[in-house]
Amino acid sequence: MSTVAVLGLGAMGRRMAKKLLEAGHDVVAYNRTGERARALEAEGATRAESPREAAARSDIVIGMVTDDDASRAVWLDANTGAIGGLREGAVAIESSTLTSAWVRELADAVTARGAGFLDAPVVGSRPQAEAGQLIYCVGGAAETLNKARGGLSAMGAAIHHVGPVAAGIATKLAVNALFGIQVAALGEMLGMVRKPPGRPAQRGRTS
Ligand SMILES: NC(=O)c1ccc[n+]([C@@H]2O[C@H](COP(=O)([O-])OP(=O)(O)OC[C@H]3O[C@@H](n4cnc5c(N)ncnc54)[C@H](OP(=O)(O)O)[C@@H]3O)[C@@H](O)[C@H]2O)c1
C-alpha cells in the first residue's frame, strides 16, 4: 500500500480518492477550495494545505484538475507547487485531460527533480470513477508504471501502457475525437430517420 496524494477533488478526483481509501491506501487530499478536502477527511484522508505539502508526504502524486492552467498551478507554482515537494523516486501522475505540449513540459520538470512521471488520463466519467472502473491510457516508462500500478488499479478496471510520455494524452484525445464523431454521426442519422430517404423535405425546412 502506498501513500497517495490527490490534487483536485472535483467530480472525478474525489471519487478516485475514495476508491484509493477503500483499497487501503493512505490518501493525502489537496483541493484549492478547502471544504472539498475537509469532506474527504471525514472519509479517512488526511488534508494538506498546499500541493507541495501533499507531495512531500506521498509516494505517488496524482493531479486531477480542470485544464493546463490548473495543472500548472498545482504542479509548478513557485511557492506551493507539488514539484517542490516531490521525493526522490516518487511518481508524479497527471490524470487530467491536458495538451500534449504541457504534459511534455511537466514531465521534463518532474524528471529534473529525480521523480518519475506518467501521463495517465482516463476514459470514463463519474459512474466509472465511482465504481473504480476507469480505463487508463498511460504514457511513460514501464518501470515507473510498475511502481504506480497498485494505486491505479484501485481506480481503474484497465491500465493500458500505450507508449512514452505524452502517448497517454494523445490516445485519450483520439478517443474523445472518436466520441465526437459518433455524436455527429448520430445527429445525421436522427435527421435521416425523421426525413427518410426518398421523401422530399417539406418546403422551408432544412436538414
Ligand atoms: N467529469 C468527467 O466526466 C471527466 C471524464 C474524464 C476526464 N475528465 C477530466 O478530468 C479532469 C477533472 O474533471 P472534473 O470533472 O473532476 O472537473 P471539476 O469537477 O470541474 O473539478 C475541477 C478541479 O480542478 C480544480 N481547479 C480548477 N482550477 C484550478 C486552479 N487554477 N488551481 C487549482 N485547482 C484548480 C478545482 O478546484 P476547486 O474545487 O477549488 O474549484 C477542482 O478540484 C479534467 O481535465 C477533465 O477533462 C473528466
Polypeptide structure, described:
With 207 residues, this protein is of the alpha/beta class. It has a single domain (3-180), classed as Rossmann fold (3-Layer(aba) Sandwich), CATH 3.40.50. It has 8 helices and 9 strands. Strand 5 (91-94), helix 5 and strand 6 form a beta-alpha-beta unit. The chain is elongated.
Features:
207 residues; alpha/beta; Rossmann fold; 3-stranded mixed sheet
Radius of gyration: 20 Å
- As for the CATH topology, it is Rossmann fold
* Ligand catalogue: NADP nicotinamide-adenine-dinucleotide phosphate
Q: In the CATH hierarchy, what is the architecture at level 2?
A: 3-Layer(aba) Sandwich
Main sheet properties:
6 strands, parallel
Structural class: alpha/beta
Q: Which strand-content bin applies to the residues?
A: 15-25%
Order of H and E elements: EHEHEHEHEHEEHEHEH
Spatial sequence of strands, sheet with the most strands: 3-2-1-4-5-6
Give the N-terminus to C-terminus distance in angstroms: 57 Å
What number is the mean pLDDT?
94
Full CATH superfamily name: NAD(P)-binding Rossmann-like Domain
**Share of helical residues:** 40-55%
Overall body shape: elongated
Total number of domains:
1
**Poorly predicted ranges:** none
Give the beta-strand count: 9
Look at the structure and give the CATH class: Alpha Beta
